[in-house]
Amino acid sequence: MSNLPKIAWIGLGIMGSPMSENLIKAGYDVTGFTLEQDKLDRLAAAGGTAAKSIAEAVKDADVVITMVPASPQVEAISYGPEGILENAKSGALIIDMSSITPQTSVDLAKNAKEKGIRVIDAPVSGGEAGAIEAVLSIMVGGEQADFETAKPILEALGKTIVLCGPHGSGQTVKAANQLIVAVNIQACAEAVVFLEKSGVDLKAALDVLNGGLAGSTVLTRKKDNFLNRDFKPGFRIDLHHKDMGIVTDAARNVGASLPVGGVVAQLVASLRAQGDGGLDHSALLRAVERLSGNQVA
User: Fold this and answer.
1) What region holds the 6-phosphogluconate dehydrogenase NADP-binding domain (predicted)?
2) Which of 174, 222, 223, 242 is catalytic?
């Protein structure tokens, strides 16, 4: 029998499936629940246990990890008679790795405390590739003691793991991350169209740019997407649209001006309105191509 904590995993999407599998590889007992049967089958094939409900998944868990799309989904799985708070045991630790509003995290921690349940918010950056490779950056909000409890688990999922402050701080840092990533992708997309229209060897140009000050993790991860026009979703435009709404709203609340971020948020929204919401966020290239008069399939 393992002395490692028993883990319940709620949400087995593009990120959640490989992350839960990395915990299984690290020796953890993982019971999962999600709405898609094929994802439950994948978990079982990897050595995990598929549950039939949230209540069943969390009832014996020492740690409950959640990875769902947005605040409404976090609230739906956390509250109510079938939710986490009513069914997890007292003393359990919730690690919410979803990207949601800071206030949702603060409220969840407050409500969970009344049930004797601890919470940290721990959103991630690194996309599908980072999830698969277990090299995610994990930004955490919550109590120091709970962070220390969670850290060995998080170390099986990522490389950079930092406590950023009290509840909600992880979500605030994630919002800033999504601002930087969106602006970076937009700049790369504009450079790609500029280079192509100028008749430059695009692959050679991106290689040399990535070796200098213009280089970035975004360019490293998304270079092939741009070159091959491969926009299979690693992180969907729909989700980045949600995140840009979080960061612009949070910035307004604290009195921070985001002039470039505001423009990019509108470009993300326009791409989504044109039917590209299910594509990877590197598909911002498609928006630049349309604005530049290119035919986009």
Assistant:
1) 6-165
2) 174
